[in-house]
# Entry
Amino acid sequence: QVQLVESGGGSVQAGGSLRLSCAASERDFTFYNMGWFRQAAPGKERLFVASMTWGGDTLYGDAVKGRFVVSRDNAKSTVSLQMDSLRPEDTAVYYCAGTKSITDPWNYWGRGTQVTVSS
# Structure
């Protein structure tokens, strides 16, 4: 099973920036869609943040539009999330995710990386 591994989390003050990265354990594995979800606390819903398809189509959650930018490198099976103008409510564990095809659910997940934004 292909693994997804996130990096780049940390602590930042409100208004600051962080960049998250995610890499697949097999570079030759092709994901149709790669993206990011976040979970504010255990037991809370894991919410969609952003995604990008193999062809470059992007989607963003309403809470992050205009502040976050998703990008990917298909050749390396990596996806990144540039997070600017961070707010305390962006504090969460961020998970990288992938789908194998257009019809598949999000069935590849990383273990998550913590992002903490202080006011």
